[in-house]
Design goal:
Blueprint lengths: L9 E6 L1 E5 L2 E4 L3 E8 L3 E4 L5 E4 L2 E4 L12 E3 L5 E3 L2 E5 L9 E5 L1
Length: 105
């Protein structure tokens, strides 16, 4: 069962990181994603294992798992830009709970 559409109140623009150039990171085209945005500061671990502060957590449908790659740039509805630190699949294995992707930025 998918996370219900009525919970997906926000829209963000996701630009996957596709490489590095002479002036820094290079991002691909923006993909609009409907999600639920939780603006809550918390301590998490980044892919390198270091403790970092997350400013926002996004909850969206699993079909966007390929878009939210590590270090992808996310433009929030208010114009802030954040980067994906971690994206976790929340799949219940057929138990009937909501399937979703939890993205920590």
């Amino acid at each position: 069962m998918q996370i219900p559409g009525y919970l997906l109140r926000h829209q963000v623009l996701v630009s996957p990181q596709i490489g590095e150039g002479a002036t820094g990171d290079v991002y691909g085209g923006q993909v609009p994603v409907r999600c639920f945005q939780d603006d809550r500061r918390r301590l998490v671990r980044n892919p390198a294992g270091a403790e970092v502060v997350s400013e926002v957590t996004l909850y969206c449908r699993l079909r966007y798992a390929d878009v939210f790659t590590t270090d992808a740039e996310v433009t929030l509805a208010d114009g802030r830009k954040v980067h994906v630190m971690q994206a976790s699949r929340r799949d219940d294995g057929g138990l009937g709970a909501w399937q979703h992707l939890e993205v920590v930025c």
